[in-house]
Design brief:
The complex is a heterodimer of chains A (286) and B (404).
Chain A (H helix, E strand, L loop, with lengths): L12 H35 L18 H4 L7 H32 L5 H7 L2 H4 L2 H15 L9 H25 L3 H9 L4 H29 L3 H6 L6 H8 L6 H34 L1
Helix pairs in contact in A: 1-12, 3-7, 3-9, 3-11, 7-9, 8-9
Chain B lengths: L1 H8 L13 E12 L2 E12 L3 E5 L6 H9 L6 E6 L2 E2 L10 E4 L11 H12 L3 H14 L15 H13 L5 E5 L7 H18 L2 E6 L2 H7 L2 E6 L2 E6 L1 H6 L4 H6 L4 E9 L5 E6 L4 E5 H4 L4 E6 L5 E3 L10 E12 L3 E8 L3 E8 L15 E6 L5 E4 L1 H8 L12
Parallel strand pairs in B: 3-8, 3-9, 6-7, 7-8
Antiparallel strand pairs in B: 1-2, 1-4, 4-5, 9-10, 11-12, 11-14, 12-13, 14-20, 15-19, 16-17, 16-19, 17-18
Helix pairs in contact in B: 3-4, 3-5, 4-5
């Protein structure tokens, strides 16, 4: 073991340089990381204003607003976007409702096979999508007959609700586990029965968790490709539309719609964050 | 003034309230088990209409569980619970005419103070105008007017406590249950709220059932107290009764400080006094009524009831006495606390007001030989459970750790 010599009292020139870099290095690395995350999005937005010469939208040609003025002007695109939205909405609502109830049951009640249920909820999240998609296809075909076969929007919906439930349960459960039970006792003490207690106290307080779960479910549904591709049959969702177009050139409108989705998503997060900050500030001012 | 003086000198006895008082809460042989653990062990209890009743005991004694069963948050394993004569044992909380002030206030964080207070009336479908006037009145009663539009996270702990009280009282329940409601407040605020609670209780005239582990708090506010230990109450009575005449070693130790010396009841025949031969060789007297029917006992006397005499002073003939040596003295301003060694290797705690002796030279010093004396009516008799148990069974019963 070599003896450790104590550091000299006066810093060496190397140490001084390192110290000076210390402050700025943090900013540089942070900037690079943010750039890495945002550059693809920036490209999508930028190329939604591109005026490509041919069918492919890969090379910057010139600025135009014409695709923004006609965002659905590609055959098949409106139908695909509409279908994706419908599936996302319906699967979100159904999965959020069912997932919230499952979450409540798992946190609130002791029942037989509770542990098993808790574990099984994770399986759809842990299974590779490609496997899930393939087995769903097998299942639908082997059951046969409507609404499972031929494959349609309904089968997509069943698949989306299925994988969304897991995410909703996990999100809502996290919110419920920290829920102060004595608030429900207080409500019942004040004359509210179980039903009123749920709607007047429990639900408003876990609503942020439910909304978060719903937003997660919506975003998972609207951009799902793998499972959807296996369960769609002849129908086409927005991600499938893009995939189909990728060999012959993705139309600029895809960038326009992508940008819109991005703006709506960021806007929603921004508005909720702002509302929370304002509420906190109000509470602190009091 | 004369009336008040008489009242102060009155010998405590049970039943200050008229015997005809209606029963607000009645527990009949109530048992609550959580798995194998017995939280409440066969309790019979009657709380009278309009009284301030406290369940006092250390944590885990079953006091909160008892309260929660009255509130309807726990179902008893066995037994019967009545509210104003009605069997409510199996009714849910929302069908009972009781309201609770919870330990952590349990205000609804998403509702304003006004909506919190109005919550109970809204459930009953009371008209908006009446809700408004009653809520305003309630917030005035708890001295929080103008707080209607605040949220629970915008008020202090003491204010939240008052809102919780208003939210419960607005429903005019037959009984108000309070579960250590002052536990989270600092000492000064707690003292203030004790006075406030008592004032409000008198003003609204509602029966209060109050759970606390703080003996001083219970004694300050209560009309009657049940001192609970290990799932049942050891003694029930008025505060003075419990303090002056504790019946068990636990009660003697839990409420205030007690000096206890083991002994044997010698004779109970004739007169007001029983003769008790203490194990340290001293013979003392105690009220006959307390000693009757007992053999092995612990004789108790409160520290402030003992007087210390110089060896040459005459102790009044009727007083109990024994020789002692001052072991330690701690000066506390209003009084001085002495530890006095007495025969039989026992040590007594004595509080002496700093009146006759006040300066350092006048106070007793460690090592001084004294005579310890007290009036026989200040003796109390506690059953010596350990000696009884040892006598009845051959097996050794572990002595309980009491706070001596």
């Amino acid at each position: 073991m070599a003896t450790v010599t104590p550091a000299p009292a006066t810093p060496s020139s190397v140490q001084r340089l390192a110290r000076r870099l210390d402050g700025s290095a943090l900013y540089v690395f942070t900037g690079l990381a943010v750039l890495y995350l945002l550059l693809p999005v920036a490209v999508i937005v930028l190329f939604s204003f591109n005026d490509p010469a041919g069918k492919s939208n890969f090379v910057w040609q010139g600025f135009t607003l014409k695709y923004w003025l006609d965002p659905l002007g590609v055959p098949g695109l409106p139908q695909a976007v509409f279908l994706s939205l419908v599936i996302a909405f319906v699967s979100t609502i159904v999965a959020t409702a069912l997932g919230t109830l499952i979450g409540l049951a798992l946190v609130r009640y002791d029942f037989r096979l509770q542990g098993a249920t808790n574990a099984l909820i994770f399986i759809p999240m842990a299974t590779p999508e490609i496997v899930l998609g393939a087995s769903l296809l097998t299942m639908f075909v082997s059951i046969g007959g409507p609404p499972f076969f031929p494959l349609s929007a309904v089968t997509i919906l069943i698949a989306h609700i299925m994988f969304n439930i897991s995410y909703v349960v996990v999100t809502v459960r996290a919110r419920l586990e920290g829920f102060p039970r004595h608030l429900e006792e207080a409500a019942m003490d004040l004359g509210a029965n179980e039903w009123t207690t749920f709607w007047k106290v429990t639900f408003p307080l876990i609503l942020p968790g439910i909304v978060a779960a719903g937003l997660l479910a919506f975003s998972l549904s609207i951009d799902d490709f793998v499972i959807t591709n296996f369960t769609a049959g002849k129908t086409q969702t927005f991600p499938m539309f893009i995939y189909a177009k990728y060999r012959i050139g993705i139309p600029v409108q895809v960038n326009v719609i992508g940008t819109l989705i991005f703006i709506i998503a960021v806007g929603t997060v921004g508005v909720t964050t702002l509302a929370r900050i304002r509420a906190d500030a109000r509470a602190r001012r009091r | 003034m004369r009336v008040r003086a008489e009242e102060a000198g009155r010998i405590p006895h049970e039943g200050r309230l008229p015997a005809v008082a209606n029963v607000a809460v009645r527990l009949v042989d109530v048992v609550k088990k959580f798995g194998e653990t017995v939280a409440v062990d066969h309790i019979d209890l009657e709380v009278r209409d309009g009284e301030f009743f406290s369940l006092l005991g250390p944590s885990g004694c079953g006091k909160t569980t008892t309260l929660r069963m009255i509130g309807g948050f726990e179902e008893p394993t066995a037994g019967l619970i009545e509210l104003q004569g009605q069997d409510v044992t199996w009714l849910p909380p929302y069908q009972r005419n009781v309201n609770t002030v919870f330990q952590n206030y349990a205000l609804f964080p998403h509702l304003t103070i006004y909506e919190n207070v109005a919550f109970g009336l809204r459930r009953k479908g009371v008209k908006e105008a009446e809700i408004k006037s009653r809520a305003t009145e309630m917030l005035e009663l708890v001295e929080l007017p103008g707080f209607e539009n605040r949220k629970p996270n915008q008020i202090s702990g003491g204010q939240a406590q008052r809102v919780a009280l208003a939210r419960a009282l607005i429903n005019r329940p037959a009984v108000l249950l309070l579960d250590e409601p002052l536990g989270a407040l600092d000492l000064k605020l707690r003292k203030q709220m004790q006075v406030e609670l008592k004032r409000i209780q008198k003003e609204v005239g509602i029966t209060f059932v109050y759970v606390t582990h703080d003996q001083e708090e219970a004694m300050t506010m209560s009309d009657r107290i049940a001192v609970m230990n290990r799932g049942h109450y050891e003694q029930l009575g008025e505060p003075e009764m419990l303090y002056e005449r504790p019946q068990t070693r636990f009660v003697a130790g839990f409420l205030g400080v007690s000096n206890l010396i083991a002994g044997r009841v010698d004779a109970t025949a004739g007169g007001d006094w029983a003769t008790i031969a203490l194990d340290n060789g001293v013979t003392v007297r105690a009220p006959r009524a307390l000693a009757e029917g007992k053999t092995r006992i612990l004789l108790g006397v409160r520290p402030e009831k003992i007087r210390l005499y110089e060896t040459h002073e005459t102790v009044p003939e009727s007083h109990n006495r024994m020789p002692g040596t001052i072991r330690a003295a701690s000066y506390m301003g209003v009084s001085t606390q002495y530890q006095v060694d007495v025969p039989g290797n026992r040590r007594l705690t004595v509080f002496e007001q700093n009146v006759e002796r006040a300066t350092k030279s006048e106070l007793w010093a460690p090592g001084e030989v004294v005579v310890v004396g007290w009036q026989p009516q200040h003796s109390f008799v506690v059953r010596d459970e350990s000696a009884e148990a040892a006598a009845e069974e051959a097996t050794e019963v572990a002595a309980e750790p009491f706070g001596e």
